[in-house]
Design goal:
Layout: E1 2-7, H1 11-22, E2 27-31, H2 56-69, E3 74-76, E4 79-84, E5 90-94, E6 98-106, E7 110-112, H3 120-123, E8 128-129, H4 132-135, E9 143-147, H5 151-161, E10 166-171, H6 180-187, E11 192-196, E12 200-206, E13 209-215, E14 220-221, E15 225-228, E16 232-234, E17 264-266, H7 278-296
Parallel strand pairs: 1-2, 1-6, 2-3, 6-17, 8-15, 9-10, 9-15, 10-11
Antiparallel strand pairs: 4-5, 5-6, 7-16, 12-13, 13-14
Helix pairs in contact: 1-2, 1-7, 5-6
Amino acid sequence: MYDLIVIGMGIGGITAGIYAKRGNLNVLLLDKGTPGGMLNNIDKISNYPGLINIKGSDFASKLFDQVKDLNIPYKFEEVTELKVEEDDVKVVVTTRGEYRANSVIIATGTKPKYLGLDNEKDLLGRGLSTCATCDGAFYKDKVVAVVGSGNSALQESLYLANICQKIYLLNRKAGFKGDEILIDKVNNCPNIEIIYNVNIKEYNEIDNKLQSILLDNGTTLNVEGVFIYIGYKPNTDIFKNLDITNMNGHIIVDENFETKIEGVYAIGDAINKDIYQLATASSDAIHAVSNISKINN
């Protein structure tokens, strides 16, 4: 029986674990994947105080080192369900077992959106990716396309420009919504070609590998890789049975980051809020753990 179980080991979840441990709570961290979550997909982080152009994977590694240094219990197991028993005990069900706690913090973050084309899922890992830092090396000296108009698309295009022969940056709009400093760098990068107001209509494949893409303006581009950065959606599907999300899947919380279910909290990119940043995810975690500590002490 734990005081607190944190579902997710991104920056928010790990911050919650650190503050819970320092607050003498019996805490358990759960995650199905690599510690740091989406941090591992970021080439450089430039807007977190005290960290100057750190690789996302390096930051994730430092966070996990702190978990181990503080002896915070953790398990790499996929959470499949969260249940609330009659005595208000929270039961976190994983693929390997069940864990009980008085309180739970949901810190599951987001997952990438896709274009929704017929053969999209079949091409994942066969020419289609949502992580340039993970898969960019496979496309050394090749021609690829990046889809998107925000900071992620801009940053990853610049990252790929150091690896690939050419990048087509496909903007589905007439302009970018990212930071001006990134837009300027992309505009001045010789092997990035920007194409505005286009969508990918078809992925063309040979032997289950991407060979080219057809745009809705009739143009065919011979590319061996496509990297999609059109946004993210909250990774909250497993909590739909609790009726704590809005129509977009974001979890609804109060000023203490508690849902309408007593003892069930949510933080970071999984919740409905105005600003989604690494610093705000950490802040959310501190607020939630502070409230839980008051209840337990």
